Amino acid sequence: MDYNKSLIKRRRIRIGDISISYLLKEADPADQTVVFVHGFPFNKNMWIPQLEGLPPSIRGIAMDVRGHGNSTMGHGFFSVDVFAKDLLVFLRKMAINRAIVCGISMGGYIALRAYQIRPEAFAGLILCDTNSLADDNTAKQKRFDTIQSVLKNGKRAFSIGFVNNVFAQKALTENPDAIDLIKSSIRRNTESSICATLLALASRTDTTDSLQSITVPTLVVRGAEDRITPREQSDILVSKIPDATYLEMPGCGHLPNLEDTTRFNMELTAFIDHINPA
């Protein structure tokens, strides 16, 4: 994806057993810092339109989760808990005391688990097309079947089916750049990383019981045509998080930040403005 290279810089930082790759849109001084966490099986590039759309006074960072994009796999044993602890170490190493964390799908699982571990690291939450529930047995079996399919048929067949499921019909017919971005993101991952992450998602813990303890402003976003995250799952977040606001984006599927970038960026900026500077 083309982007403004004078505005956004590519960086790396070592944390623990891995090297994390991230995109940085700097602001000096920064009123707020927004850290974007991608979904499965994507990478940091899916947030480039949001980094470019941030106001000058807001610092934006989009990181590659362990084993995705250009971040290394380390020991190779993935879990949402491991991803969440990576995020918290990343914030500490970057000297970010309190961040607004924006996570989509898997990125939302990571954000919720990280908040459970260290709530004081957060100034706000943006939870996009995600939920707090652990996989039930049916969902687990679907992920196990997907692993077998990836091992048998490879990444290309997986990426085609995945793209058709995550986008609304409008994007599939009118937004080829977003389609190409997601296809290329999937194919940049290794089969072992895809399968390890599927196991991590299947084994994630349920964070629903702790939602009521979230004290920071929270924006819950869902594409109205999302076939992966039902409205009922978003409703759980909104009903249980005390300071939660719900935004449904018409004409969008599972990736509204790419499907309607203009509206998403407008709502993102409005939400950031609502939060007191850190």
Explain what you see:
With 278 residues, the protein is of the alpha/beta class. Helix content is 44%, strand content 19%. It contains 10 helices and 8 strands. The chain has helices at 48-53, 80-93, 106-117, 137-166, 169-174, 176-188, 191-202, 231-240, 256-259, 261-274; strands spanning 8-15, 18-25, 32-37, 58-63, 99-104, 122-128, 218-223, 244-249. The chain has an 8-stranded mixed beta sheet with strand order 1-2-4-3-5-6-7-8, sandwiched between helices. Strand 7 (218-223), helix 8 (231-240) and strand 8 form a beta-alpha-beta unit. Helix 2 (80-93) crosses helix 3 and helix 4 crosses helix 7. The longest helix is centred in the middle third of the chain and has 30 residues, at 137-166. It is globular and about 50 Å long. The two termini are 32 Å apart. The relative contact order is 0.16.
Low-confidence regions: none
- How far from one another are the termini? 32 Å
Radius of gyration: 17 Å
Strand order across the largest sheet: 1-2-4-3-5-6-7-8
Mean pLDDT: 96
What is the tally of helical segments?
10
Query: In which range does the helix fraction lie?
Result: 40-55%
Strand content: 15-25%
User: Structural class, from helix and strand content?
Assistant: alpha/beta
Q: What is the succession of H and E elements?
A: EEEHEHEHEHHHHEHEHH
> What profile does the largest beta sheet have?
8 strands, mixed
Count of strand segments: 8
What global shape is seen?
globular
